[in-house]
Amino acid sequence: MARRIILASTSPFRRELLSRLQLPFETVAPEADESALAHETPAATAKRLAESKARAISRHFPDALIIGSDQVAACGELRFGKPGTRAAAVTQLQSMRDKEIVFHTGLCVLNSATNHAQLCCIPTQVGVRNLTDDEINAYLNKEDALGCAGSAKSEGLGISLLRYLRGDDPTALIGLPLIALCEMLRAEGVALP
């Protein structure tokens, strides 16, 4: 019998990405503190939070493969989370203009039967155009990006804000690196083409 696959997320973007693999799965909202720790690198934060989300629901699913993912966007010391408000989105996009932002996407596959966790972090370098305030406002008038790290929804109109994307997995920027996930699931015996 196939092991249950649980996505520890309520993100519609992650759910859509995982559905591309055509595997049955369930989604469960994890309760995890998403605060960064002092002196923690963005990549370390993303990996820790991905694992924390998977472990947060593992006791409810003792024989499942639990997928956790988290993303931290950073430029030097600046970190960009989900803005939540339009004013915060404007501020984020203004501070990102003409810079390279690295989106660190942490991924965890936790086998709750063995307590073994596979972890990785996939970076994506994103060059943001030198946006005018009018362009930022026009974008936010058309795209609901308040729930996206860095306010730039690359799978939608946010692609028009960018100069380039560089990374090994195009789905990592959306929030769930499918290439790495396929490798992790195969390592757990899940049949994928």
Keywords:
Maf protein, 5 helices, 193 residues, 27% strand, alpha/beta, 7-stranded mixed beta sheet, single chain
What does this structure look like?
The model has no long low-confidence stretch (mean pLDDT 94). The protein is elongated. α3 (86-96) packs across α4. It starts with a strand and ends in a 6-residue tail after the last helix. The chain is built from five helices and seven strands; from the N terminus they run βαβαββαββαβα. It has 193 residues and is α/β, with parallel strands linked by helices. It has a single domain (4-187), classed as Maf protein, CATH 3.90.950.10. The longest helix is centred in the N-terminal third of the chain and has 17 residues, at 42-58. Strands 1, 2, 3, 4, 5, 6 and 7 form a seven-stranded mixed β-sheet that branches. A hairpin with a 2-residue loop joins β3 (64-75) and β4.
- The CATH class is Alpha Beta
* Helix percentage range: 25-40%
Strand content: 25-35%
Number of strands: 7
According to CATH, what is the topology? Answer: Maf protein
Number of alpha- plus pi-helical segments? 5
Q: Structural class, please?
A: alpha/beta
Mean pLDDT: 94
Please provide the ordered H/E string of secondary-structure elements: EHEHEEHEEHEH
Number of domains: 1
Low-confidence stretches: none
Overall geometric form = elongated
CATH architecture: Alpha-Beta Complex
**Cα-to-Cα separation, first versus last residue:** 18 Å
What profile does the largest beta sheet have?
7 strands, mixed
Rounded to an integer, what's the Rg over CA atoms?
17 Å
